[in-house]
Amino acid sequence: MRTLVIDTATRACSVALFDGKQLLAAQHEVIGRGHAERLLPLIAALPDNGKADQIMVDVGPGSFTGIRVGVAAAKALGLAWRIQVHGYGCLSLVAAMARAQSGSQAAVDVIMTGGHGEYFFEAFNDTGHSIAPARSVLPELLATVALADHVAGDIDPQRGDRVWTDILPDARAWAHLPDDHALPPVPVYGRAPDAKPAAVRA
Amino acid sequence: MAIILGLESSCDETAAAIVRSDRTILSHALAGQEDHHRAFGGVVPEIAARAHAELMTPLVETALADAGMTLHDVDAIAATAGPGLIGGVMVGLVTAKALAMASGKPLIAVNHLEGHALSPRLVDADLSFPYLLLLVSGGHCQLLRVNGVGDYNRLATTIDDAVGEAFDKTAKILGLGFPGGPAVERAAALGNAKNVPLPRPLKGADEPHFSFAGLKSAVLRAHETGQYKVEDIAASFQQAVIDCLYDRIRYTLDRIDAPAALVVAGGVAANVPIRNMLEGLAASRGMRFVAPPLWLCTDNGVMIAWAGAERFAMGLTDGLDFVARPRWPLDPNAAPARGAGVKA
Protein backbone atom coordinates (compact mmCIF):
# COMPACT_ATOMS: atom_id res chain seq x y z
CA MET A 1 0.00 0.00 0.00
CA ARG A 2 1.63 3.21 -1.17
CA THR A 3 0.89 6.56 0.45
CA LEU A 4 1.62 10.00 -1.02
CA VAL A 5 2.00 12.63 1.71
CA ILE A 6 1.57 16.33 0.88
CA ASP A 7 2.47 19.09 3.34
CA THR A 8 2.12 22.73 2.27
CA ALA A 9 0.56 24.22 5.41
CA THR A 10 3.62 26.23 6.50
CA ARG A 11 6.76 27.85 5.05
CA ALA A 12 7.85 24.32 4.17
CA CYS A 13 6.72 22.57 1.02
CA SER A 14 7.24 18.84 1.31
CA VAL A 15 6.07 15.62 -0.28
CA ALA A 16 6.89 11.99 0.50
CA LEU A 17 6.06 8.59 -0.93
CA PHE A 18 5.75 5.62 1.42
CA ASP A 19 5.32 1.89 0.93
CA GLY A 20 3.50 0.94 4.11
CA LYS A 21 5.50 2.93 6.66
CA GLN A 22 8.75 2.70 4.73
CA LEU A 23 9.88 5.94 3.08
CA LEU A 24 10.60 5.47 -0.63
CA ALA A 25 11.33 9.04 -1.73
CA ALA A 26 10.74 12.60 -0.59
CA GLN A 27 11.28 16.27 -1.33
CA HIS A 28 11.38 18.91 1.40
CA GLU A 29 12.04 22.61 0.80
CA VAL A 30 11.54 25.63 3.05
CA ILE A 31 10.28 28.15 0.51
CA GLY A 32 8.17 30.64 2.45
CA ARG A 33 5.75 31.29 -0.39
CA GLY A 34 5.10 29.88 -3.85
CA HIS A 35 3.70 26.45 -2.91
CA ALA A 36 1.27 26.63 -5.84
CA GLU A 37 4.25 26.70 -8.21
CA ARG A 38 6.55 24.22 -6.44
CA LEU A 39 4.15 21.50 -5.29
CA LEU A 40 3.29 19.70 -8.54
CA PRO A 41 6.88 19.66 -9.87
CA LEU A 42 7.98 18.17 -6.51
CA ILE A 43 5.33 15.43 -6.75
CA ALA A 44 6.20 14.79 -10.41
CA ALA A 45 9.83 14.21 -9.35
CA LEU A 46 8.81 11.30 -7.10
CA PRO A 47 8.95 7.74 -8.49
CA ASP A 48 6.02 7.02 -10.82
CA ASN A 49 4.88 10.69 -10.50
CA GLY A 50 4.07 10.00 -6.86
CA LYS A 51 1.28 7.62 -7.81
CA ALA A 52 -0.02 5.89 -4.70
CA ASP A 53 -2.96 3.97 -3.27
CA GLN A 54 -3.94 6.77 -0.92
CA ILE A 55 -3.07 10.41 -0.24
CA MET A 56 -2.52 12.07 3.12
CA VAL A 57 -2.56 15.87 3.16
CA ASP A 58 -1.85 18.41 5.90
CA VAL A 59 -5.22 20.15 6.43
CA GLY A 60 -3.89 22.77 8.87
CA PRO A 61 -4.13 24.96 10.70
CA GLY A 62 -1.42 27.05 9.09
CA SER A 63 -1.20 29.31 6.07
CA PHE A 64 -4.70 29.71 4.57
CA THR A 65 -3.30 29.68 1.04
CA GLY A 66 -0.87 26.85 1.72
CA ILE A 67 -3.60 24.61 3.13
CA ARG A 68 -5.80 25.28 0.12
CA VAL A 69 -3.00 24.50 -2.32
CA GLY A 70 -2.33 21.16 -0.60
CA VAL A 71 -5.97 20.13 -0.24
CA ALA A 72 -6.88 21.20 -3.80
CA ALA A 73 -3.96 19.25 -5.25
CA ALA A 74 -4.67 16.19 -3.08
CA LYS A 75 -8.35 16.11 -4.02
CA ALA A 76 -7.57 16.51 -7.72
CA LEU A 77 -4.95 13.73 -7.60
CA GLY A 78 -7.45 11.58 -5.74
CA LEU A 79 -9.99 12.19 -8.49
CA ALA A 80 -7.52 11.47 -11.28
CA TRP A 81 -6.10 8.30 -9.71
CA ARG A 82 -9.46 7.29 -8.15
CA ILE A 83 -7.91 6.84 -4.71
CA GLN A 84 -8.86 7.91 -1.20
CA VAL A 85 -7.69 11.24 0.22
CA HIS A 86 -7.34 11.80 3.97
CA GLY A 87 -6.10 14.69 6.05
CA TYR A 88 -3.91 15.04 9.12
CA GLY A 89 -3.39 17.91 11.52
CA CYS A 90 -0.44 20.22 11.00
CA LEU A 91 0.38 20.50 14.70
CA SER A 92 -0.15 16.74 15.18
CA LEU A 93 2.69 16.06 12.76
CA VAL A 94 4.94 18.56 14.54
CA ALA A 95 4.15 16.86 17.87
CA ALA A 96 4.93 13.44 16.38
CA MET A 97 8.21 14.75 14.97
CA ALA A 98 9.18 16.23 18.36
CA ARG A 99 8.47 12.94 20.14
CA ALA A 100 10.44 10.98 17.54
CA GLN A 101 13.40 13.36 17.71
CA SER A 102 13.59 13.39 21.50
CA GLY A 103 12.81 9.70 21.89
CA SER A 104 10.52 10.70 24.74
CA GLN A 105 6.90 9.64 25.17
CA ALA A 106 6.07 12.65 27.33
CA ALA A 107 3.41 15.24 26.59
CA VAL A 108 4.34 18.01 24.15
CA ASP A 109 2.83 21.40 23.33
CA VAL A 110 3.05 22.77 19.80
CA ILE A 111 3.21 26.47 18.92
CA MET A 112 3.19 27.48 15.25
CA THR A 113 3.03 30.73 13.30
CA GLY A 114 -0.58 31.80 12.77
CA GLY A 115 -2.16 34.76 11.02
CA HIS A 116 -2.12 38.45 11.99
CA GLY A 117 0.66 37.96 14.53
CA GLU A 118 -1.21 35.24 16.40
CA TYR A 119 0.04 31.73 17.12
CA PHE A 120 -1.62 28.36 16.72
CA PHE A 121 -1.41 26.38 19.95
CA GLU A 122 -2.26 22.73 20.56
CA ALA A 123 -1.39 20.42 23.45
CA PHE A 124 -0.67 16.70 22.98
CA ASN A 125 -0.74 13.99 25.67
CA ASP A 126 1.72 11.19 26.31
CA THR A 127 0.19 9.02 23.56
CA GLY A 128 0.68 11.79 20.99
CA HIS A 129 -3.01 12.64 20.79
CA SER A 130 -4.43 16.14 20.88
CA ILE A 131 -5.99 17.19 24.16
CA ALA A 132 -8.08 19.96 22.57
CA PRO A 133 -8.36 21.37 19.02
CA ALA A 134 -5.73 23.89 17.92
CA ARG A 135 -6.57 27.49 18.85
CA SER A 136 -5.32 30.79 17.54
CA VAL A 137 -3.94 32.79 20.46
CA LEU A 138 -2.29 36.15 21.00
CA PRO A 139 1.46 35.87 21.75
CA GLU A 140 1.03 37.43 25.19
CA LEU A 141 -1.45 34.71 26.15
CA LEU A 142 1.28 32.10 25.84
CA ALA A 143 2.88 33.48 29.00
CA THR A 144 -0.26 32.49 30.90
CA VAL A 145 -0.50 28.94 29.49
CA ALA A 146 0.83 26.14 31.70
CA LEU A 147 3.19 24.76 29.04
CA ALA A 148 4.39 21.15 29.00
CA ASP A 149 8.09 20.53 29.67
CA HIS A 150 8.62 19.95 25.95
CA VAL A 151 7.50 22.57 23.43
CA ALA A 152 7.82 22.20 19.63
CA GLY A 153 7.06 24.28 16.56
CA ASP A 154 8.46 27.27 14.71
CA ILE A 155 7.80 29.74 17.54
CA ASP A 156 10.27 30.04 20.40
CA PRO A 157 8.15 30.11 23.59
CA GLN A 158 10.89 32.21 25.30
CA ARG A 159 10.58 30.10 28.41
CA GLY A 160 14.02 29.05 29.58
CA ASP A 161 12.60 26.38 31.85
CA ARG A 162 11.14 24.48 28.89
CA VAL A 163 12.84 22.41 26.18
CA TRP A 164 12.03 23.89 22.75
CA THR A 165 12.47 21.97 19.48
CA ASP A 166 12.35 24.16 16.36
CA ILE A 167 10.33 22.13 13.86
CA LEU A 168 8.41 22.71 10.63
CA PRO A 169 6.16 19.87 9.45
CA ASP A 170 7.93 17.48 7.10
CA ALA A 171 6.08 14.90 4.98
CA ARG A 172 8.95 12.44 5.57
CA ALA A 173 7.84 12.13 9.21
CA TRP A 174 4.28 11.09 8.43
CA ALA A 175 4.81 7.52 9.67
CA HIS A 176 5.46 8.90 13.17
CA LEU A 177 1.85 10.03 13.51
CA PRO A 178 -0.40 7.91 15.76
CA ASP A 179 -2.23 5.23 13.75
CA ASP A 180 -5.63 6.89 14.20
CA HIS A 181 -4.56 10.30 12.87
CA ALA A 182 -6.73 10.49 9.72
CA LEU A 183 -9.07 13.47 9.32
CA PRO A 184 -11.45 14.39 6.49
CA PRO A 185 -9.60 16.12 3.59
CA VAL A 186 -11.15 19.45 4.55
CA PRO A 187 -9.15 22.58 5.44
CA VAL A 188 -8.90 23.35 9.16
CA TYR A 189 -8.27 27.10 8.97
CA GLY A 190 -8.22 27.73 12.71
CA ARG A 191 -9.34 31.32 12.17
CA ALA A 192 -12.46 32.86 10.64
CA PRO A 193 -12.05 35.16 7.60
CA ASP A 194 -11.43 38.75 8.65
CA ALA A 195 -14.46 40.20 6.87
CA LYS A 196 -17.47 41.08 8.98
CA PRO A 197 -21.01 41.24 7.58
CA ALA A 198 -22.18 44.77 6.78
CA ALA A 199 -24.76 44.63 9.58
CA VAL A 200 -22.12 43.61 12.17
CA ARG A 201 -19.72 46.34 11.00
CA ALA A 202 -22.38 49.00 11.37
CA MET B 1 -10.97 17.04 -32.55
CA ALA B 2 -9.64 18.07 -29.18
CA ILE B 3 -11.62 17.79 -25.94
CA ILE B 4 -10.74 20.37 -23.30
CA LEU B 5 -11.67 20.53 -19.62
CA GLY B 6 -11.81 24.14 -18.37
CA LEU B 7 -11.81 25.38 -14.75
CA GLU B 8 -12.80 28.85 -13.55
CA SER B 9 -12.36 30.26 -10.01
CA SER B 10 -11.21 33.87 -10.36
CA CYS B 11 -14.10 35.62 -8.59
CA ASP B 12 -17.27 34.23 -7.04
CA GLU B 13 -18.24 31.50 -9.50
CA THR B 14 -16.68 28.04 -9.29
CA ALA B 15 -17.05 26.26 -12.61
CA ALA B 16 -15.88 23.30 -14.67
CA ALA B 17 -16.86 22.55 -18.25
CA ILE B 18 -15.89 20.31 -21.13
CA VAL B 19 -15.84 21.66 -24.67
CA ARG B 20 -14.87 20.03 -27.96
CA SER B 21 -12.95 21.99 -30.60
CA ASP B 22 -15.90 21.66 -33.04
CA ARG B 23 -17.77 24.06 -30.70
CA THR B 24 -19.78 21.37 -28.92
CA ILE B 25 -20.34 22.03 -25.22
CA LEU B 26 -20.23 18.56 -23.66
CA SER B 27 -20.91 19.66 -20.09
CA HIS B 28 -21.11 22.77 -17.98
CA ALA B 29 -21.09 22.69 -14.16
CA LEU B 30 -21.21 25.89 -12.13
CA ALA B 31 -21.75 26.88 -8.52
CA GLY B 32 -22.30 30.52 -7.63
CA GLN B 33 -21.35 31.86 -4.22
CA GLU B 34 -23.87 34.67 -3.95
CA ASP B 35 -25.23 33.29 -0.68
CA HIS B 36 -21.73 33.27 0.81
CA HIS B 37 -21.16 36.97 0.06
CA ARG B 38 -24.59 38.61 0.26
CA ALA B 39 -24.25 39.61 3.92
CA PHE B 40 -21.05 41.47 3.07
CA GLY B 41 -22.50 43.44 0.15
CA GLY B 42 -19.68 42.28 -2.13
CA VAL B 43 -17.26 39.45 -2.80
CA VAL B 44 -14.93 38.74 0.15
CA PRO B 45 -11.69 37.23 -1.22
CA GLU B 46 -10.97 34.83 1.66
CA ILE B 47 -14.56 33.57 1.75
CA ALA B 48 -14.47 33.10 -2.02
CA ALA B 49 -11.20 31.16 -1.84
CA ARG B 50 -12.60 28.86 0.85
CA ALA B 51 -15.70 28.16 -1.22
CA HIS B 52 -13.64 27.43 -4.35
CA ALA B 53 -11.51 24.94 -2.38
CA GLU B 54 -14.67 23.16 -1.26
CA LEU B 55 -16.49 23.16 -4.61
CA MET B 56 -13.87 22.76 -7.34
CA THR B 57 -13.18 19.01 -7.33
CA PRO B 58 -16.86 18.00 -7.01
CA LEU B 59 -17.65 20.27 -9.97
CA VAL B 60 -14.92 18.61 -12.06
CA GLU B 61 -16.48 15.24 -11.19
CA THR B 62 -19.90 16.55 -12.22
CA ALA B 63 -18.57 17.94 -15.50
CA LEU B 64 -16.91 14.62 -16.34
CA ALA B 65 -19.99 12.60 -15.35
CA ASP B 66 -22.36 14.84 -17.31
CA ALA B 67 -20.18 14.44 -20.40
CA GLY B 68 -20.02 10.68 -19.82
CA MET B 69 -16.23 10.86 -19.69
CA THR B 70 -13.17 10.20 -17.60
CA LEU B 71 -9.97 12.22 -17.60
CA HIS B 72 -8.54 9.77 -20.16
CA ASP B 73 -10.99 11.14 -22.73
CA VAL B 74 -9.78 14.72 -22.23
CA ASP B 75 -6.91 16.04 -24.37
CA ALA B 76 -5.86 18.99 -22.19
CA ILE B 77 -6.80 20.74 -18.96
CA ALA B 78 -7.27 24.50 -18.98
CA ALA B 79 -7.75 26.78 -15.99
CA THR B 80 -8.01 30.47 -15.33
CA ALA B 81 -4.54 31.56 -14.14
CA GLY B 82 -5.49 35.24 -13.63
CA PRO B 83 -6.37 38.03 -13.45
CA GLY B 84 -8.65 37.86 -10.43
CA LEU B 85 -8.78 37.18 -6.70
CA ILE B 86 -5.54 35.28 -6.31
CA GLY B 87 -6.63 32.89 -3.55
CA GLY B 88 -9.41 31.55 -5.74
CA VAL B 89 -7.32 31.54 -8.93
CA MET B 90 -4.73 29.38 -7.16
CA VAL B 91 -7.35 26.77 -6.19
CA GLY B 92 -8.48 26.28 -9.79
CA LEU B 93 -4.97 26.42 -11.22
CA VAL B 94 -3.50 23.95 -8.70
CA THR B 95 -6.46 21.62 -9.28
CA ALA B 96 -5.77 21.77 -13.02
CA LYS B 97 -2.04 21.21 -12.51
CA ALA B 98 -2.72 18.12 -10.38
CA LEU B 99 -5.24 16.73 -12.89
CA ALA B 100 -2.78 17.38 -15.72
CA MET B 101 0.19 15.79 -13.92
CA ALA B 102 -1.79 12.73 -12.80
CA SER B 103 -3.37 12.10 -16.21
CA GLY B 104 -0.31 12.98 -18.29
CA LYS B 105 -2.29 15.63 -20.19
CA PRO B 106 -1.01 19.14 -20.95
CA LEU B 107 -1.92 22.15 -18.81
CA ILE B 108 -3.18 25.34 -20.43
CA ALA B 109 -3.07 28.49 -18.28
CA VAL B 110 -5.81 30.79 -19.53
CA ASN B 111 -6.11 34.54 -19.09
CA HIS B 112 -9.65 34.99 -17.76
CA LEU B 113 -10.06 38.05 -19.99
CA GLU B 114 -9.11 35.99 -23.02
CA GLY B 115 -11.83 33.56 -21.95
CA HIS B 116 -14.34 36.39 -22.27
CA ALA B 117 -12.70 37.77 -25.41
CA LEU B 118 -12.80 34.50 -27.36
CA SER B 119 -16.17 33.23 -26.07
CA PRO B 120 -18.09 34.87 -28.96
CA ARG B 121 -16.18 32.60 -31.37
CA LEU B 122 -17.55 29.55 -29.56
CA VAL B 123 -21.12 30.46 -30.42
CA ASP B 124 -20.45 32.08 -33.81
CA ALA B 125 -18.30 29.96 -36.13
CA ASP B 126 -18.29 32.80 -38.68
CA LEU B 127 -16.65 35.29 -36.33
CA SER B 128 -13.10 35.58 -37.62
CA PHE B 129 -10.18 37.77 -36.53
CA PRO B 130 -9.86 40.67 -36.29
CA TYR B 131 -12.88 42.04 -34.41
CA LEU B 132 -13.61 44.99 -32.17
CA LEU B 133 -14.40 43.85 -28.63
CA LEU B 134 -16.07 45.77 -25.84
CA LEU B 135 -15.06 43.90 -22.67
CA VAL B 136 -17.28 45.02 -19.82
CA SER B 137 -17.28 43.33 -16.42
CA GLY B 138 -16.98 43.98 -12.71
CA GLY B 139 -13.26 44.50 -13.07
CA HIS B 140 -12.85 45.87 -16.59
CA CYS B 141 -14.13 48.25 -19.22
CA GLN B 142 -11.98 48.04 -22.33
CA LEU B 143 -12.26 48.40 -26.06
CA LEU B 144 -9.90 45.96 -27.75
CA ARG B 145 -8.95 45.03 -31.26
CA VAL B 146 -8.74 41.22 -31.20
CA ASN B 147 -6.16 40.27 -33.83
CA GLY B 148 -5.89 36.62 -32.89
CA VAL B 149 -5.37 34.26 -29.96
CA GLY B 150 -3.06 36.03 -27.51
CA ASP B 151 -2.84 39.10 -29.76
CA TYR B 152 -4.73 42.20 -28.61
CA ASN B 153 -4.52 45.96 -29.03
CA ARG B 154 -6.16 47.86 -26.20
CA LEU B 155 -7.74 50.93 -27.78
CA ALA B 156 -9.49 52.33 -24.71
CA THR B 157 -9.92 51.55 -21.03
CA THR B 158 -11.57 53.01 -17.96
CA ILE B 159 -9.49 55.53 -16.07
CA ASP B 160 -11.27 54.73 -12.79
CA ASP B 161 -14.14 52.31 -12.08
CA ALA B 162 -15.09 49.37 -14.26
CA VAL B 163 -18.61 49.60 -15.59
CA GLY B 164 -19.76 46.53 -13.63
CA GLU B 165 -18.24 48.08 -10.51
CA ALA B 166 -20.38 51.18 -11.14
CA PHE B 167 -23.48 48.98 -11.38
CA ASP B 168 -22.56 47.15 -8.15
CA LYS B 169 -21.88 50.37 -6.26
CA THR B 170 -25.08 51.95 -7.54
CA ALA B 171 -27.02 48.90 -6.36
CA LYS B 172 -25.39 49.20 -2.95
CA ILE B 173 -26.17 52.93 -2.71
CA LEU B 174 -29.78 52.35 -3.74
CA GLY B 175 -30.17 49.30 -1.47
CA LEU B 176 -31.03 47.04 -4.40
CA GLY B 177 -29.00 44.06 -3.23
CA PHE B 178 -26.22 41.87 -4.57
CA PRO B 179 -25.25 41.10 -7.32
CA GLY B 180 -25.85 44.65 -8.43
CA GLY B 181 -25.95 44.45 -12.22
CA PRO B 182 -29.21 42.51 -12.62
CA ALA B 183 -30.75 44.38 -9.65
CA VAL B 184 -30.13 47.80 -11.23
CA GLU B 185 -31.39 46.59 -14.61
CA ARG B 186 -34.62 45.31 -13.03
CA ALA B 187 -35.21 48.55 -11.11
CA ALA B 188 -34.33 50.63 -14.17
CA ALA B 189 -37.03 48.89 -16.19
CA LEU B 190 -39.58 50.41 -13.78
CA GLY B 191 -38.15 53.95 -13.75
CA ASN B 192 -37.95 57.03 -15.95
CA ALA B 193 -34.43 57.66 -17.28
CA LYS B 194 -35.15 61.39 -17.74
CA ASN B 195 -36.12 62.15 -14.15
CA VAL B 196 -32.68 62.38 -12.55
CA PRO B 197 -29.96 64.62 -14.03
CA LEU B 198 -26.71 62.69 -14.00
CA PRO B 199 -23.35 63.46 -15.65
CA ARG B 200 -21.81 61.66 -18.64
CA PRO B 201 -18.11 61.51 -17.65
CA LEU B 202 -15.65 62.03 -20.55
CA LYS B 203 -18.49 62.31 -23.09
CA GLY B 204 -17.15 64.35 -25.99
CA ALA B 205 -13.59 64.26 -24.64
CA ASP B 206 -10.77 64.15 -27.16
CA GLU B 207 -9.40 60.84 -25.86
CA PRO B 208 -10.75 57.30 -26.21
CA HIS B 209 -11.10 56.31 -22.56
CA PHE B 210 -14.02 55.63 -20.22
CA SER B 211 -14.79 56.96 -16.74
CA PHE B 212 -17.55 55.97 -14.33
CA ALA B 213 -16.43 57.06 -10.84
CA GLY B 214 -18.05 60.50 -11.11
CA LEU B 215 -21.31 58.94 -12.23
CA LYS B 216 -21.39 56.70 -9.17
CA SER B 217 -20.74 59.70 -6.90
CA ALA B 218 -23.56 61.62 -8.62
CA VAL B 219 -25.88 58.67 -7.96
CA LEU B 220 -24.96 58.87 -4.27
CA ARG B 221 -25.67 62.63 -4.16
CA ALA B 222 -28.96 62.26 -6.02
CA HIS B 223 -30.07 59.51 -3.68
CA GLU B 224 -29.12 61.55 -0.62
CA THR B 225 -31.37 64.45 -1.67
CA GLY B 226 -34.34 62.14 -1.02
CA GLN B 227 -36.27 63.70 -3.91
CA TYR B 228 -35.95 60.85 -6.43
CA LYS B 229 -37.48 57.40 -6.71
CA VAL B 230 -34.93 54.58 -6.59
CA GLU B 231 -36.27 53.25 -9.90
CA ASP B 232 -35.78 56.63 -11.57
CA ILE B 233 -32.20 56.89 -10.30
CA ALA B 234 -31.49 53.35 -11.54
CA ALA B 235 -32.98 54.13 -14.97
CA SER B 236 -31.12 57.44 -15.23
CA PHE B 237 -27.86 55.79 -14.17
CA GLN B 238 -28.21 53.01 -16.71
CA GLN B 239 -29.00 55.53 -19.46
CA ALA B 240 -25.94 57.58 -18.53
CA VAL B 241 -23.79 54.44 -18.80
CA ILE B 242 -25.30 53.68 -22.21
CA ASP B 243 -24.69 57.26 -23.40
CA CYS B 244 -21.06 57.12 -22.24
CA LEU B 245 -20.38 53.75 -23.84
CA TYR B 246 -21.99 54.89 -27.10
CA ASP B 247 -20.03 58.13 -27.23
CA ARG B 248 -16.69 56.52 -26.37
CA ILE B 249 -17.03 53.60 -28.82
CA ARG B 250 -18.09 56.04 -31.56
CA TYR B 251 -14.98 58.13 -30.85
CA THR B 252 -12.75 55.12 -31.51
CA LEU B 253 -14.74 53.91 -34.53
CA ASP B 254 -14.30 57.35 -36.13
CA ARG B 255 -10.54 56.97 -35.88
CA ILE B 256 -9.74 53.37 -36.80
CA ASP B 257 -10.09 51.11 -39.81
CA ALA B 258 -13.04 49.33 -38.21
CA PRO B 259 -13.11 45.53 -38.30
CA ALA B 260 -16.17 43.75 -39.71
CA ALA B 261 -17.70 42.90 -36.34
CA LEU B 262 -18.48 44.63 -33.07
CA VAL B 263 -18.46 42.09 -30.25
CA VAL B 264 -19.41 42.46 -26.60
CA ALA B 265 -18.33 40.15 -23.78
CA GLY B 266 -18.06 40.13 -20.00
CA GLY B 267 -20.68 40.14 -17.28
CA VAL B 268 -22.12 43.56 -18.17
CA ALA B 269 -22.86 42.22 -21.67
CA ALA B 270 -25.78 40.48 -19.97
CA ASN B 271 -27.47 43.92 -19.64
CA VAL B 272 -30.15 43.98 -22.34
CA PRO B 273 -30.47 47.78 -22.88
CA ILE B 274 -26.66 47.98 -23.30
CA ARG B 275 -26.77 45.13 -25.83
CA ASN B 276 -29.57 46.88 -27.71
CA MET B 277 -27.56 50.11 -27.91
CA LEU B 278 -24.51 48.23 -29.21
CA GLU B 279 -26.57 46.39 -31.78
CA GLY B 280 -27.91 49.70 -33.10
CA LEU B 281 -24.45 51.27 -33.15
CA ALA B 282 -23.01 48.31 -35.08
CA ALA B 283 -25.86 48.44 -37.59
CA SER B 284 -25.32 52.17 -38.15
CA ARG B 285 -21.66 51.46 -38.98
CA GLY B 286 -22.36 48.49 -41.23
CA MET B 287 -20.73 46.16 -38.71
CA ARG B 288 -21.97 42.77 -37.66
CA PHE B 289 -22.92 42.61 -33.98
CA VAL B 290 -22.02 39.49 -32.02
CA ALA B 291 -22.96 38.93 -28.39
CA PRO B 292 -22.69 35.59 -26.59
CA PRO B 293 -25.88 34.30 -24.95
CA LEU B 294 -26.46 35.85 -21.54
CA TRP B 295 -25.29 32.77 -19.59
CA LEU B 296 -21.94 32.85 -21.40
CA CYS B 297 -21.36 36.54 -20.54
CA THR B 298 -21.01 36.01 -16.79
CA ASP B 299 -18.08 33.94 -15.48
CA ASN B 300 -18.21 30.25 -16.43
CA GLY B 301 -16.01 27.27 -17.24
CA VAL B 302 -17.15 26.92 -20.85
CA MET B 303 -15.32 30.07 -21.97
CA ILE B 304 -12.13 28.88 -20.23
CA ALA B 305 -12.39 25.48 -21.91
CA TRP B 306 -12.98 27.20 -25.25
CA ALA B 307 -10.03 29.58 -24.83
CA GLY B 308 -8.06 26.46 -23.89
CA ALA B 309 -9.20 24.80 -27.12
CA GLU B 310 -8.11 27.82 -29.16
CA ARG B 311 -4.69 27.83 -27.48
CA PHE B 312 -4.33 24.04 -27.71
CA ALA B 313 -4.97 24.22 -31.46
CA MET B 314 -1.98 26.56 -31.70
CA GLY B 315 0.21 24.27 -29.62
CA LEU B 316 0.23 26.64 -26.63
CA THR B 317 0.58 24.74 -23.35
CA ASP B 318 2.12 25.64 -19.98
CA GLY B 319 4.33 24.12 -17.29
CA LEU B 320 3.31 22.85 -13.86
CA ASP B 321 5.25 25.75 -12.32
CA PHE B 322 3.06 28.41 -13.99
CA VAL B 323 2.61 31.36 -11.61
CA ALA B 324 -0.95 32.65 -11.07
CA ARG B 325 -1.26 36.34 -11.90
CA PRO B 326 -3.54 38.71 -9.96
CA ARG B 327 -3.08 41.26 -12.79
CA TRP B 328 -2.69 40.19 -16.40
CA PRO B 329 -3.54 42.71 -19.12
CA LEU B 330 -4.48 41.35 -22.55
CA ASP B 331 -2.32 44.01 -24.19
CA PRO B 332 0.79 44.42 -22.04
CA ASN B 333 2.18 46.99 -24.48
CA ALA B 334 -0.74 49.42 -24.25
CA ALA B 335 0.23 52.96 -23.33
CA PRO B 336 -0.96 53.92 -19.83
CA ALA B 337 -4.24 55.80 -19.85
CA ARG B 338 -4.22 59.14 -18.05
CA GLY B 339 -4.88 58.54 -14.35
CA ALA B 340 -5.93 54.94 -14.91
CA GLY B 341 -3.44 53.40 -12.49
CA VAL B 342 -3.44 49.65 -12.17
CA LYS B 343 -6.85 49.09 -13.74
CA ALA B 344 -5.62 49.81 -17.23
TrEMBL record, chain A:
Gene3D superfamilies the record matches: 3.30.420.40
Pfam families the record matches: TsaD
Domain of life according to the entry: Bacteria
Annotated source species: Sphingorhabdus rigui
NCBIfam families to which the protein is assigned, alphabetical: T6A_YeaZ
InterPro entries: ATPase_NBD (IPR043129), Gcp-like_dom (IPR000905), T6A_TsaB (IPR022496)
Protein name per UniProt: tRNA threonylcarbamoyl adenosine modification protein YeaZ
SUPFAM superfamilies in UniProt: Actin-like ATPase domain (SSF53067)
Domain Gcp-like: 29-122
GO terms for biological process, alphabetical: tRNA threonylcarbamoyladenosine modification
UniProtKB/TrEMBL annotation, chain B:
Cofactor(s) required, per the database record: Fe(2+)
Name of this chain's protein: tRNA N6-adenosine threonylcarbamoyltransferase
Gene3D superfamilies membership: 3.30.420.40
Catalytic reaction(s) noted: L-threonylcarbamoyladenylate + adenosine(37) in tRNA = N(6)-L-threonylcarbamoyladenosine(37) in tRNA + AMP + H(+)
Keyword field contains Amino-acid biosynthesis: no
InterPro entries membership: ATPase_NBD, Gcp-like_dom, KAE1/TsaD, TsaD
Cellular compartment(s): Cytoplasm
One cellular-component annotation, GO: cytoplasm
EC number: 2.3.1.234
Entry-linked SUPFAM superfamilies: Actin-like ATPase domain
Name of the gene encoding the protein in the UniProt record: tsaD
Biological role stated in the UniProt entry: Required for the formation of a threonylcarbamoyl group on adenosine at position 37 (t(6)A37) in tRNAs that read codons beginning with adenine. Is involved in the transfer of the threonylcarbamoyl moiety of threonylcarbamoyl-AMP (TC-AMP) to the N6 group of A37, together with TsaE and TsaB. TsaD likely plays a direct catalytic role in this reaction.
Species of origin: Sphingorhabdus rigui
PANTHER family given in the database record: TRNA N6-ADENOSINE THREONYLCARBAMOYLTRANSFERASE, TRNA N6-ADENOSINE THREONYLCARBAMOYLTRANSFERASE, MITOCHONDRIAL
Pfam families cross-referenced by the UniProt entry: TsaD
Record-stated family: Belongs to the KAE1 / TsaD family.
Domain of life: Bacteria
Positions bound to substrate: 135-139, 168, 181, 185, 271
